[in-house]
Amino acid sequence: MYLVSVNKLRKLLFLSLAGNVRADELVKGREEIEILLADFPTGFRLISDLSQLDTIDPDCVPEIGLVMELCDQKGVELIIRVIPDPSKDIGLNILSLFHYPRRPRTIVCDNLADALKIIPI
After folding, report:
1. In whole angstroms, how far apart are CA 22 and each of 2, 8, 64, 72, 93?
2. Quick one: pLDDT band at residue 100, thresholds 50, 70, 90?
């Protein structure tokens, strides 16, 4: 499952991957992100929560790259990744090198509570 939500007041885009994620789900998620970011302010923050991820289809890699590029084009300034189990890191650092030419600041947290503490109120 793929969940996308925004909080415009906090300039926050929240993405969550849970369970067994397939590429077709990410295509729909990217389409949602495009709509949500259309009038979103630059300098926004992104939380990617992988704490509930079980598996991800290898065919998802191109879609993840497209989402990264979209966020970069829209001016993401901070990326917070919630990855409690390092074995479930799906290569996001490597993908970031190719899809974030602006190199936004990136922080990895063990849990969502710690991630939310980083975002100012």
Report:
1. 9, 28, 11, 23, 20
2. confident
Q: How far apart are the first and last CA of the chain?
A: 28
In the structure, what pLDDT confidence band is assigned to residue 50 with cuts at 50, 70 and 90?
very high
CA 34 to chain CA centroid, nearest Å: 13
Residue 87 makes CB contacts below 8 A (sequence gap 6+) with none
Mean pLDDT on 25-34: 92
Q: What is the pTM of this model?
A: 0.89
Which pLDDT value is given to residue 121? 64
What's the rounded Cα separation, in Å, for the pair 34 and 28? 10
Q: Which domains does the chain show, CATH number per domain? A: 2-118 (3.30.750.24)
